[in-house]
Amino acid sequence: MTAWDAIVIGAGPAGIGGGSVLAENGARVLVVDEAPGPGGQIWRGIETVPDSRALLLGPDYLAGKAEAARLRASGAHLAFETSVWRAEPDGTVWLRDNEGIRQEKARHLLIATGAMERPVPRPGWTLPGVTTIGGLQILLKREGLLPDGELVLIGTGPLFYLYAAQCLAAGKRDLTLLDTAANGALFGALPSLPAALTGRGPAYLAKGLKLLWKLRRAGIRFHACPQDLRIERDADGLRVRFRRNSALHSLYASHVGLHEGVIPETHMVRSMGCHMDWSREGAAFHPRRDSRLQSSIERVFVAGDAGGIGGATVALLEGRLAALSILEELGRSVDPLLRETTRRTRRAHLSARPLLDTLYRPQDALLSPADEVVACRCEEVTCGEIRAALMADSAGPNQVKAFLRCGMGPCQGRTCGMTLTSLAAASRNLTMEEAGYLTVRPPLRPVTLGEIADLY
Q1: 456 Cβ neighbours under 8 A, 6+ residues apart
Q2: Handedness of CA 267, 269, 270, 272 (dihedral sign)
Q3: Tens digits of per-residue pLDDT, 258-287?
Q4: DSSP label of 170
Q5: Cβ neighbours of residue 157 closer than 8 Å, sequence gap 6 or more
Q6: What is the spatial distance between Cα 276 and Cα 284, in angstroms, rounded to a whole number?
Q7: The pTM is what?
């Protein structure tokens, strides 16, 4: 076990930003990530992707190349293809790589685990051929692959339109979009418009409008506000059925992509005991952070989308800000002007976030699906079974987990946890915070008993 000044968990934009600044200022820092190289989900494969594919993915993706190179040159110790299966408040981190498991210890932890796609439990979401749009985009980034045949994309949010535009740029036109944003969402978002027109907000809004214009100009089929949406098996594929303006629609699809935004990946911070707050605007739990990006646990910092969705640039800036806070605690000199400039730039890039959160907030029906919908894919537990357990005086998510095994599968509740909490809140007329969440315990990633035994 090595003693480090800081361990950075995650090498996406936030981890890259934090690890680079820490190492450049003389801190002994270890950066850990499960991937073969830096980039995270947003800049996945940035060091190895062919130029032709990188151009297709756009300038926001290409921006990661210089940042990954900076991390490589910073002097940080990089541990790729390494998973963190336990992290403790005292700075002890348990790692697993191809040589087995080991412990590392740091004076400070910087959690930069990023975001995950919001689970989309709706009728048919577990059928073969149905996946998340984020999963489809990973195939495009890593392998340059697009689904064959008719592709129907269901959902809303920036990634929904970005992936559609990337499909179009790659030459795929057998594409249909079903935008599930609530009818009247634009009107509800208007109070946030003045703030969104400040800072970097106009650039983000212009980027989104440009994506929409490209898709419309190309004649991509589009349906807004579909109701009673369900996915069914078809003879040789899938059938998407929905209602719009009292008319029933039926679309054939070879593949279906689902997306309803992204939420912070909070399993690690939950397992450490960090205090969590519910954000109604983002419809997600966030770890509580102070102005220095320190969590409710001393010397544990959270940066990037793991602390609240802001996108790649905000994540990079938050990684740098957290690093400056850690350096200050280490007794290193920190330029106050640099810190204030970074904070100001971060605020500028967040100016449009309240508008986007309101505009693309998932409809309430998605957070409280029908009884027949599977909530827990791993253990095949339906929403109806969860409701029945709650009506039988189950106190909350953890009791339902004990009764039904909901949350005990390989994903450890990452897929069903939000649905379980929302059903508990609705059935008992509680807030999401009052309803509670599944207790998260290590190991956060699979380890064998033999590997643990080898430590002793």
Answers
A1: none
A2: positive
A3: 999 999 999 999 999 999 999 988 899 999
A4: T
A5: 259, 260, 261, 262, 356, 360
A6: 10
A7: 0.95
